[in-house]
Amino acid sequence: MSAPSGSAGRFTYAASGVDIDAGERAVTLMRSAVERTNRPEVVGGLGGFAGLFALDVTKYRRPLLASSTDGVGTKIALARQLDRHDTVGIDLVAMVVDDLVACGAEPLFLQDYVACGRVVPERIAAIVTGIAEGCTRSGAALVGGETAEHGDLMAPEDYDLAATAVGVVEADAVLGPARVRPGDAVVAMASSGFHSNGYSLVRRVVADAGLDLAATPTGLDRPLGDVLLEPTRIYALDCLALVAELGTDGVHAFAHITGGGLAGNTVRVVPEGLEAVLDRGTWALPPAVRLLEEQGVPREESERAFNCGVGMVAALAPADADRAVSLLTARGVPAWIAGTVQESPGRAASARLVGTYR
Fold it and tell me: Phi and psi of 149, rounded to 5°?
């Protein structure tokens, strides 16, 4: 059947909401940043149908592959509001690689997925450049990904991010609750801010309280928008350095503090019959959290929704705790002994906060 008169050339992919040329320009803009993340094991380059990684199994006695998938969440809405897109990629990488290292795994490679309503090459390139920066900070190679334009599903300025990372750990070196013992010290590692959790609550408070993102509230040292967009600290290489120095006799577990807060994530590495007790008096509640509490967020809710200044904790043999703090501090990660693991016979695993913040 012939096309109706006058309809020839009327339908194109671009007119339907998918601009192939814009996608190709975005790839061109991000190429050099992606290539800088390459590790020696990466085979091929950007543009293939699959990312290839040559795992050298001769380096390991019994390697286990570890994988993690996550996104950035509604922090992206804040990035769109401020039209700043160069840091959410770092957040994305942090969410997956810091989950990997919690079991002792070295991040090997990562693949990202960017869904958007409209491909704006410069914006996509800024996002992926941030992802590449996060990969550099964690030692992972960015071996591929996907940018999908979904004009029928998303508004033109909308986008969302997800990623999957793969790591490797020796089977006899997996960290976790099975290694945690009574008397273990709990070492806290400072967060860089809210990281990538709790932003639905953060944004609701900012909007309802009429807080100005361009202003610097009392107690903060820079505009509120800058504080809220501060990228997530990536702990992967620092945690791996700790294990390399102290071994698994010294380092027993890591807990990545994400949604659910400090107690809610610490308990994930505590075995039955034990309790992690963390002393609030060993650190100061971040000013940005206090600001939100002043606007009506209850303390109990803060400690469930936000990391409250601690982005990662380690359970360690008590004799190694001071050495761990010194090593982390020397690597630029503020750290301190925040508590201990105690016996709690006959009870389910638990974690709780005691005392008052400084």
Answer: -100, 115
Q: What is the Cα–Cα distance from 78 to 94, expressed in whole angstroms?
A: 18
CB 283 within 8 A of CB 335: no
**Token pair 């105690």 in the structure block, residue:** 342
Span of 10-19, 27-36, 141-150, 174-183 with lowest mean pLDDT = 10-19
Q: Which residues contact 39 (CB under 8 A, 6 or more apart)?
A: 53, 108, 109, 139, 140, 141
- Tokens standing for 32? 């050099």
Domain that holds residue 95: 17-42+61-170
Point out the domain boundary residue: 114, 149, 170. 170
Separation CA 54–CA 56 (nearest Å): 6
Token representation of residue 209? 């309280």
d(CA 41, CA 32) in angstroms, rounded, equals: 18
pTM score, whole prediction: 0.90
The residue-averaged pLDDT of 254-278 equals 97
At residue 167, the 3 state secondary structure works out as: strand
Structural domains in the chain (count): 2
| Rounded distance between C-alpha atoms, residue 326 and residue 321, angstroms | 9
Last residue of a domain, one of 142, 170, 198: 170
Beta-carbon-side half-sphere exposure of residue 119 (alpha carbons within 13 Å): 23
Lookup result for tokens 């807080």: 211
| pLDDT band, very low/low/confident/very high, at 49 (cuts 50, 70, 90) | confident
Query: How many Cβ atoms from other residues are within 10 Å of residue 54's Cβ?
Result: 10
**156 to each of 89, 161, 298, how far by Cα in Å?**
19, 15, 36
